[in-house]
Amino acid sequence: MENHTHSTTLSNTSSELGNHTDLKVHVFNSSSELLEKLHQRWSKVEKKPYPAMYSSVYGGIILDPAIMVIPIDDHMVHRGHGVFDTAIILDGYLYELDVHLDRILRSAAKAKISLPFPRSTLRSILIQLTAASKCKKGTLRYWLSAGPGNFLLSPSGCPTPAFYAVVIDDDFSQCKEGVKVITSTVAMKPPLFATMKNVNYLPNVLSVMEAEEKGAFASIWVDEAGYIAEGPNVNVAFITQEKELVMPLFDNILHGCTAKRLLELAPQLVEQGILKGVTTKNVTVEEAKGAAEMMYVGSTLPLLPIIMWDDQPIGKGEVGELTMALSDLLWNDMVAGPDTQRIPVPYIE
Predict the structure, then answer these.
(1) Tens-digit pLDDT profile for residues 107-124
(2) Element (H or E) spanning 322, and its range?
(3) Active-site residue 214, yes or no?
(4) Which of 37, 197, 214, 243 is catalytic?
(5) Architecture in CATH of 179-335
């Protein structure tokens, strides 16, 4: 796990002038010398952003951020042959771990990645990792890869698949401020890759960068047929003028776990007479931009209101009441939902 506060050991003058004859690259003669250097860098970080990591290559949990690394010849690193998922840690509970774990297994099957352990073992590792981290609020991210072996295109030289996981200390909170978005001009992933949560996120990165360059928070993908697809790493939902919650079909996009949970919870607002209905269907750009309210749906949000799209206001151009009612539903589920949604972490104090 790379520390983003590091600085280069090479001479800036040499780099700028291209004078490689004066460049002297340090050679680390021992692992202890390298570890000392890494510890020096991490000693400048006041709070560890990654309190714990698991690696099947190491065969255990790592608490020292200086050695939270993965092999460079892992097929996930140099060929993008890996899948991942994320669960939320909130108030000492893991939220929706099982549905996210089920999804990474589906993604792994599509990516033809074998499991290094049974599902029950993976689940136990993730719970123990969270306990060892002592983190009460953050995210738990985990990867399945074809594993290390060589640098070839085929994973046939990677004898054992790998499992990695890291706890990320993150002080997120319920989103109550609206954001601006744009329609992405970056080509979206084809269905095979869009429906599995894989590590090939370059289109996602470029779409966010495009949005930021235009002063927006993120972007919206529209498919070739002209229907709304998804955001760069979130689903998108709308409240129609008739007060109906609408989400695009999940046939060609990632079926978000939070989006799925929202569709399960939203009928409560229908019963209360607040919403008129809940549905998934193809949504045209014209229909979407004519919505009364709009939102991103994702794990750490859980809902993020969208008030402006391509410099045009959505509805009244302000955070909508129904958006916040749905956000409250999800947030309350995260904080005090049923045992099927929240797993207590067995911390050892």
Answers:
(1) 999 999 999 999 999 999
(2) helix 321-336
(3) no
(4) 197
(5) Alpha-Beta Barrel (3.20)
